[in-house]
C-alpha cells in the first residue's frame, strides 16, 4: 500500500472516530460506576486531551486534502502538498503509536491480580 493511500485511509478512519455518538466521555463512565466528581473531572480532562488530539489529526488531514485539491485545480504548489501529506502522515503515526501504548497499558492492567 502506498504512503498516500495509507494516509488517506487512516484519515478517513480517524474522522469517523471523531464523530461517533456511541463513545462515552470519561465523566459519563465515572458517573455510571459511582466515582467521585473530582476524579471524574480529572478523567474528563484526559478525555478532552484525547479528543483534541484526534481533532488535530482530522484538521491536519483536512488541510492536506484542501492543498491537494488546490494543486489538482492548478492553484497549489506541489511542495505544499507533499509537506501537508507528510505532516498528516506523521500525525497519524503518532496517533497510532499513542493508541498502541494505551492498549498495551490496558492489557498490563488486566493482567494484574485482583
Report the order of strands and helices: HHHH
Largest sheet: none
Instruction: Tell me the β content.
Output: under 5%
The coarse overall form would be: elongated
Number of domains: 1
Mean pLDDT: 78
Report the helical percentage: over 70%
Walk me through what this model shows.
- With 114 residues, the chain is mainly alpha-helical.
- It has one domain (3-111).
- It has helices at 3-18, 26-33, 37-72, 78-111.
- The longest helix has 36 residues, at 37-72.
Structural topology:
Blueprint: H1 3-18, H2 26-33, H3 37-72, H4 78-111
Helix pairs in contact: 1-3, 1-4, 2-3, 3-4
Provide a quick synopsis of the model:
The chain is mainly α and 114 residues long.
List the defining traits of the structure above.
mainly alpha; 82% helix; 114 residues
